[in-house]
TrEMBL record:
The keyword Oxidoreductase applies. Keywords: Oxidoreductase. This is SDR family NAD(P)-dependent oxidoreductase. It comes from the Bacteria. PANTHER family: 5-KETO-D-GLUCONATE 5-REDUCTASE (PTHR43669), ALCOHOL DEHYDROGENASE, PUTATIVE (AFU_ORTHOLOGUE AFUA_3G03445)-RELATED (PTHR43669:SF3). Residues 6-186 form the Ketoreductase domain. Belongs to the short-chain dehydrogenases/reductases (SDR) family. It comes from Actinomycetospora flava. InterPro entries: KR_dom, NAD(P)-bd_dom_sf, Sc_DH/Rdtase_CS, SDR_fam.
């Protein structure tokens, strides 16, 4: 997949890997539509990147998403790449004092249900472009749960399944859209601040690995610890769970 000169919509673009992906798309001569909830911070980051456009949006809110899609159709019909990277997590343990249902409700709406909505809305927009691409960020928790982020892990397993279904269905439809899944490693960013681990990698390194994999046309990109969990899963599900939780302190 050629990365130079793309017009990419990136969710979760205000911080961490999403922001770094926006930077690396821009460095390759691309133009980025940056999507995140925190409008002031998002606009400040977009001003630092040539040609970047800030599109504040709560992707779990149907009205906000409708306004986002209207703006994309009206002002950015050349969009050819979508990176769904936004997410939320709650670091806690089951059967403690936390409200697991409330955490799961928020995580499922942001991490999974918003992806269902956005994929169905954005794929028809990018489909006519040259070499259109949909990139979905999951993690090694798609293969095994992290006990310190248990309901978040379940949303990533759901998103992994959805991404596989989307890829196969588009293939059977004869669509030109390439579907990539980025199973991100544990990244040293505000998102993972609640996880104490010596195995975190920088956002810069994680996104560099993502872009390298995209250029090789690898449809399921397992990076760092995610690859280790996958290899453990080939031995047994128990091995995968133990491998992942050894890395996260779970």
């Amino acid at each position: 997949m050629k990365l130079t000169g793309r017009v990419a919509l990136v969710t979760g673009a205000g911080t961490g890997m999403g922001l770094e992906a926006a930077k690396q798309f821009t460095e390759r001569g691309g133009r980025v539509l940056m999507v995140a909830r925190q409008a002031e911070r998002l606009r400040a980051e977009a001003e630092r990147l040539p040609g970047a456009v800030a599109l504040p949006c709560d992707i779990s809110d149907a009205d906000d998403v409708r306004r986002l899609l209207d703006a994309v159709v009206a002002d950015h019909p050349e969009l050819d790449t979508v990176l769904l990277n936004a997410g939320v997590t709650h670091t806690y343990r089951l059967f403690g004092h936390e409200d697991a249902y409330a955490h799961a409700d928020e995580e499922m709406h942001v991490n999974y249900l918003s992806a269902v909505r956005l994929i169905h809305a954005l794929v028809p927009i990018i489909e006519p472009r040259t070499e259109p691409a949909l990139i979905v960020t999951t993690s090694g928790t798609a293969f095994a749960p992290d006990l310190t982020n248990p309901t978040y892990s379940a949303t990533k397993a759901a998103l992994h399944s959805l991404t596989q279904a989307v890829r196969l269905q588009l293939e059977r439809n004869g669509s030109a859209v390439k579907v990539f899944e980025f199973m991100a490693p544990l990244v040293d960013s505000p998102f993972a601040s609640g996880v104490i681990s010596d195995q975190k990698v920088s956002p810069e390194a994680a996104v560099a690995d993502l872009f390298a994999g995209l250029e090789r046309d690898e449809r399921e990109l397992r990076v760092g610890g995610s690859e280790a969990v996958y290899q453990a899963l080939r031995r047994s599900s128990d091995a995968a769970v133990r491998t992942l939780n050894a890395a996260t302190g779970g």
